[in-house]
Amino acid sequence: MIPLLIANSLALASLLVMMSSGLALIYGLRDVINFGHGALYMLGAYIGYSIANVAGFWVALVVSPALLALVGAALEYLALRPLQRRSHIEVALVTLGLGIILGQALIFIYGGEARTVEAPPSLAGSVTVFRLTYPVYRLFLIGVGLGSCGLLALWLNFTTSGLHIRAVSQDPSVARMMGINSDRLSFLVTSLSAAFAGVAGVLAGPYLSVDPGMDVTMIVSCLIIVVIGGAGSIAGAIVAALLYGFVQVAGSVFLPDLAALAPYALLMVVLLVAPRGIGRGRAPA
Amino acid sequence: MNGEAAARVPVQRDALRAPTARAGWRIGAGAAALLAFGVGAVAPQYVASDFILKLADGGLLLGILALAIAFLMSQTGLVTIGAASVYGGVGYFFAIGMTEWDLSPLAAIAVSMVVVILYAAALGALIIRTTPLAFMMLTLAAGEMISHAVLLEGLRDYTSGADGLVVSFQGTLFGLESGDFTNAARFWAIVWTAAWVAGLAAWGVRRSRFGAVLRATRQNEERMRFSGFDTYAPRLAAFVFVNVIAGACGLLHVLNSGFVSPESLGLGVSTNALVAALIGGTATSAGPLVGGLIFAFAQDEFGARGFTQLLTGIAIVLFIVVFPGGVVGALDAFVRGMFRKRQQESD
Fold first, then answer.
1. Segment A177-209, tens digit of pLDDT
2. Which residue, among A83, A104, A107, would best test binding to B if mutated, counting the most B CBs under 10 Å from its CB?
3. Are A101 and B133 in contact (CB < 8 Å)?
């Protein structure tokens, strides 16, 4: 029971981690919460669905994130950069509007019904680990989710560009004074975050389903996670995603009636104890 | 910021003119407003069809809710996306108060408004100190919690779950009968009056010392605290104020539709009101009201083709990027520009 619970919450958390670390990265550089991130995830999922039907799941897992990286670059050049002098809450609302437009366009193209994506044959079926029988695909999902998190942590902590990103996240003006080009970093980070959303979208296909409401569900979860984690803190976002996954899964097992309320209750409790979230985000300007 | 600085210039010019000229100007403006109020309350009943009036009723209700959001946004810099929970929740208390607790309509209104004030004060006390982003998320969270709570099995006897409640009252309320609220033409006069009351209240608060303290706190909270101002209580009071407006608006909505359902609590209502506020412009009190009307008519035009949400998305992007002051802000800037040009010519 308990190992299954932990495995399930890890599987959900893997998707959430990929999404919310991307959100936290953009927030760190641009001070903008990208409300359109859910729509990017949905775009990734639908592109993945189309490609998987033609060329198979593995091709989709490579091509969809690559295309999403281009969309992220467009977002940076067409929205975030021209609007960087505007109030940050306004830019966040612009991303909300862009997300709604993208989501509606996808519904217009693909129609309103839910689609399913088959897991590739090599990942179908179940395995038994420590007396727990578990679907292989979910193990793969956990592996990719936590693995990408690990890579992200290595990049941020052991490379020069990672150092610069952390510097800008902590104090944008001082970092710029030290000669860090935050525009170039923001381009890198926005494309990377969008690509992560693409990976999450493709991976979500066989695990959840590809449907018109997936963008809203995902962005609401991610926003809660980013706020719990302390806006801008990537480590905080990762911990918060794990916590959120556990609360969500445990809630639906033990208190099915109240499960829908569990994430909000978690948000309230965390923010009442630590108003700035659990991670060390940036001090407010 | 630049817009505000530019807007200050004509005010200084006014101040330099003789006091009698200013008093005359004020009396003229007051008379014009009174005339606009009177004509607006009566004329549409004779000119517009029932269908148009129904749309306009809904638009003005949305506008009042948008006014609440816009006031909080422009004065404190905080964005709430949970306004619908008060707007719809107050309807539930009104309905339950009359059917379950056998209250008179007036007592049920009093009870539901007291609940709104207590709820807003309690929630505000907890969340007003957080960052603007966290504030936005917490209002969303509180709103979603309430809209889920209405659907809980345990409360089904009171709220009827997803079916909603029928709301009607016997006797009279402020001298009006139940039918006055549900009739599109007669309700127009009511909602028009309510919009003026809410708009003037918000306008008055904006111009008061209290409004100045709010705006100063928005710009630099630390400096305000350093200067000896309390930065917590005024913002809490502002939060309660906008929730009272949202609650009163919700009561009107329930009296008009005769029905309250979980949809009226939902995120959709909150985002529509936010969009209406952006369309009209958040910086004035008239803006959101106009925005609500525009939104209602645009929604009727595009909604039939299933493009309501697309319209919402496009409106958000368009009005923030191209017309940041909204329709009313753009008109205001245009008129002021004309006025200044004429004055420069006469100088």
1. 888 888 888 899 999 999 999 999 999 988 888
2. A104
3. no
C-alpha B14/C-alpha A280 separation (Å) is 50
Considering the segment(s) A2-117+132-273 as one domain, its CATH architecture is Orthogonal Bundle (1.10)
Cβ–Cβ contact A259 with B under 8 A: no
Residue B83 to residue B143: CA distance in whole angstroms: 7
CA B308 to chain centre: 21
pTM: 0.81
Separation between Cα atoms, residue A160 and residue A170, nearest integer Å: 15
Q: Of B129, B134, B119, B126, nearest to B83 (Cα)?
A: B119
CA–CA separation, A166 and A233 (whole Å)? 9
Mean pLDDT of B111-121: 93
Nearest C-alpha neighbor of B249 from the set B315, B211, B202, B301: B202
**Residues 47-76, chain A, touching B (beta carbon < 8 A):** none
- For chain A, list residues with pLDDT below 70: 231, 280-285
Cβ distance of B314 and A101 shorter than 8 Å = yes
Quick one: DSSP state of residue B175?
T
Cα of B346 vs its chain's centroid, Å: 40
To probe the interface with A, which of B1, B74, B80, B317 has the most A CB atoms within 10 Å? B317
Residue among A83, A104, A267 whose CB faces B137 most closely: A267
The ranges assigned to domains in chain A are 2-117+132-273
Structure tokens at B196: 């003026």
Q: How confident is the model at residue B19 (pLDDT cuts 50, 70, 90)?
A: low
Pairing of strands A126-129, B172-173: unpaired
